Amino acid sequence: MRIGELATLVGITTRAIRHYHQLGLLPEPVRRANGYREYGLADAVLLARVRRLTELGLALDEVRRIVADDAGRALADVLAELDDDLARQEAALRERRARLAGLLAQARAGGLPSEGPVSPELTSLLAGLSTPTDSPSAVRDREHLLYLETVVPADQRSALMTVLDDMRTGTSELYALLDALAHLRPDDPQVASAAIALAALLPDGLAAHLPEQHADAASVTYFEDLTPAQAAAIRQALRLLKHRSQAGGG
């Protein structure tokens, strides 16, 4: 029979049959004088077995190993492995649905930020954070918090969010200071006075989370998003914070 007839008989496509030839799942049959492939009953039986195995969820490389094993022992082993894998997938799916159920409940109660899902720590921080829409610094700060949520290691995130939560009462003043610097030169006298005011708003605990020389990827991304005067003021404020923290620790 021709390839189209074989495909119809087994219930697969001619494209799948050609793919199986390429993978070595199905041996190339003899060709007629006119160049067409000539398939027989053995090919149909083999293809039917391949179809049944793939319908069980086996990958094609696993199917190839099975059909090459005449003893049949490998089939039982592979099927057992498949059953274990499906059990793991079921467990992972149950866990994901449980997390989703919690997020859905939170969203319906109005406690999930529009940027969610995010960690419970950031959810709490964003819920109490004043974000005036007319303040570019406030909008940008919210975006930076979401960025930190992604790049800060999970074992450090909770402590950092706790420290940032201590800043909530002064955020409106902080945003106003930064907005006022937006169009100034970094050597403007207002930058130094703003740096002192900013440092006073930063909690001492933040010093422990500052990278050396502010050279990590998260810090570089943060400062690139600021105007020159804002970046200068914040760098000065962070230096003042570190000095203050070291003096207090000494």
UniProtKB/TrEMBL annotation:
<dbReference type="Pfam" id="PF13411">
    <property type="entry name" value="MerR_1"/>
</dbReference>
<dbReference type="InterPro" id="IPR009061">
    <property type="entry name" value="DNA-bd_dom_put_sf"/>
</dbReference>
<dbReference type="InterPro" id="IPR000551">
    <property type="entry name" value="MerR-type_HTH_dom"/>
</dbReference>
<dbReference type="GO" id="GO:0003677">
    <property type="term" value="F:DNA binding"/>
</dbReference>
<protein>
    <submittedName>
        <fullName>DNA-binding transcriptional MerR regulator</fullName>
    </submittedName>
</protein>
<dbReference type="GO" id="GO:0003700">
    <property type="term" value="F:DNA-binding transcription factor activity"/>
</dbReference>
<feature type="domain" description="HTH merR-type">
    <location>
        <begin position="1"/>
        <end position="69"/>
    </location>
</feature>
<keyword id="KW-0238">DNA-binding</keyword>
<dbReference type="InterPro" id="IPR047057">
    <property type="entry name" value="MerR_fam"/>
</dbReference>
